[in-house]
Specification:
Blueprint lengths: L12 H25 L6 H29 L2
Helix pairs in contact: 1-2
C-alpha cells in the first residue's frame, strides 16, 4: 500500500535503513487498524466515523510501539 512512499531505490546508509523500518512499522500498524475497524464488534453505523478517526489519531503511536518492540529484541 505504501510502496514508493520513500525513494529507497538509490538511498544508502542509515537513513535508508531507518526509512525502511518506519515504512514496515506503519504498514503493520495499518494492517492492525484495518482489522480492528472491520471487526464484527464495531458498531456499523459509527464505524466509518469514530473508529477511523481513532485509527488516524493512533496509527503513529502504534507504529512507534511496533518499532520499539522489534528493537528491544536486538
Amino acid at each position: 500500500m505504501l510502496e514508493g512512499y520513500f525513494d529507497l531505490d538509490e538511498a544508502t546508509g542509515n537513513d535508508a535503513v531507518e526509512n525502511r523500518k518506519r515504512l514496515l512499522a506503519v504498514q503493520a500498524a495499518l494492517e492492525i487498524s484495518k482489522a480492528a475497524v472491520s471487526a464484527t464488534t464495531a458498531n456499523a453505523g459509527i464505524r466509518s466515523q469514530m473508529d477511523l478517526r481513532n485509527v488516524a489519531q493512533e496509527v503513529a503511536t502504534l507504529a512507534d510501539a511496533i518499532q520499539d518492540a522489534l528493537e528491544a529484541d536486538l
